[in-house]
Design brief:
Layout: H1 3-14, E1 29-34, H2 45-51, E2 55-60, H3 67-70, H4 72-85, H5 90-93
Parallel strand pairs: 1-2
Length: 95
């Protein structure tokens, strides 16, 4: 984990707009949740869609809050599929 990058980016992370600000992120976003996790439940989906209108929400069966360790193959399938679906642009080629 790149803790230095997380610490350096903390002001931007903690300044994320609240739904009542009227701001949202319209770009692609992937939300992954474990079937048994209480951190992202169906009742949260409307708020996710409000903040991230183009969000893709995927639930990984048979996992809890750590789907990347509990169902690593399915987790990677979803992440790789999402990344492959993104348009290639200048940022993708490193320009």
């Amino acid at each position: 984990i790149n803790l230095d990058a997380i610490i350096a980016g903390m002001p931007n992370i903690s300044d994320f707009p609240l739904a009542d600000s009227g701001r949202s992120y319209a770009g692609p976003a992937l939300f992954l949740a474990g079937e048994y996790s209480h951190h992202l439940r169906p009742e949260h989906y409307p708020k996710v869609r409000e903040l991230f209108p183009a969000a893709r929400i995927e639930v990984i069966p048979g996992s809890g809050h750590w789907p990347h360790t509990e169902q690593p193959e399915r987790f990677m399938e979803l992440v790789e599929g999402f990344l492959a679906s993104l348009p290639a642009g200048p940022e993708a080629s490193g320009r």
